[in-house]
Design goal:
Length: 307
């Protein structure tokens, strides 16, 4: 291959600095502008791009005009040069963050009862403050979200602060979760007037979200009916409630449209038993005592607290 068209050995000699100079010239529109931006002599900028062109085997700029203009090859290769420069800058930022204790990855187990709209603002702040942190979001029933912490499958859980959390679980209260009891408008309970006594509610099928192992262990938080069905997620529960198969508690935000359009109606449980067995509607950030939150997780928690 003719030397002026470059070869593989020449390509191996490409440097990050050459790509940075190439990008600077393209963005400022001149060799002088690139030199000012980079704090260098113009001759150093000219030499760097000339070496890049020589090693690439292509003219990246048309120099016949007063100002350098990207050639066809230059326009095609500029996005690749930008990506190299940006990837290296990202690498440096993330490496510096990890050296300072910032998590490379953050796995959050999110209760399926928590409306995503309540979480997305904090996620936005997390990304803005820690753009290099890779996030994995798990949507799980409360018991499974806590179990994910124990199994080291998650770094943080956002779940209801239910009674009986393990001794290793540290929690930080975040917000109240407005929970309501609902049933389809065709359900027998919907036709009753006034508050419903616990024994009346208990006569009807209750739909609850729970993982099988929690249900088998008798951890029936918020379940008062003798006849109960367990489903793996809140979407299934909502579908069964709409179908009139049972009654249950739901976050008000998730059933607001159903209530407004009359598919579901609010129930009014009466008596201490219903209140006592209703799920505690306190959303908490939970972590394992032996694995405290890192900087990114703490920022996420602060974002949730800020609302």
């Amino acid at each position: 291959m003719d030397k002026k068209f470059g070869n593989y050995e020449d390509m191996d000699a490409l440097t990050l600095d050459q790509f940075a100079v190439f990008v600077a010239i393209a963005e400022t529109g001149s060799f002088a502008g690139a030199a000012r931006r980079m704090g260098r002599a113009q001759s150093a900028v000219t030499y760097a791009v000339q070496k890049l062109e020589e090693q690439t085997g292509l003219a990246l700029f048309d120099r016949t005009a007063y100002r350098p203009v990207l050639s066809e090859a230059g326009r095609a290769l500029l996005p690749h040069a930008r990506r190299v420069v940006e990837d290296v800058a990202s690498y440096r930022r993330q490496a510096a963050g990890i050296a300072q204790g910032v998590e490379a990855e953050l796995t959050v187990a999110l209760s399926s009862l928590v409306p995503l709209a309540q979480v997305t603002p904090a996620l936005g702040r997390l990304h803005a403050g820690f753009p290099g942190v890779q996030l994995r979001l798990l949507i799980q029933p409360d018991e499974q979200a806590v179990a994910s912490l124990q199994d080291a499958e998650a770094d943080l859980a956002l779940a209801l602060d239910l009674p009986g959390l393990p001794a290793w679980a540290e929690r930080i209260a975040l917000a109240d979760l407005d929970m309501v009891f609902v049933a389809a408008r065709e359900h027998p309970l919907a036709g009753l007037t006034g508050p419903q006594a616990p024994e009346i509610l208990a006569e009807h099928l209750q739909i609850a979200v729970s993982v099988e192992r929690a249900a088998r262990r008798g951890r029936d938080h918020g379940v008062i009916s003798v006849n109960r069905w367990y489903v793996p997620d809140v979407a299934t529960k909502q579908a069964l409630l709409r179908a009139g198969l049972g009654w249950g508690s739901m976050p008000r935000a998730m059933v607001a449209e159903d209530l407004a359009e009359g598919r579901l109606v609010l129930l009014q449980p009466a008596g201490s038993a219903a209140t006592r067995n209703r799920p505690r509607a306190i959303l908490a950030a939970i972590h394992h005592r032996e694995r405290p939150p890192g900087p990114a997780a703490r920022a996420f928690i602060a974002g949730m607290q800020a609302g």
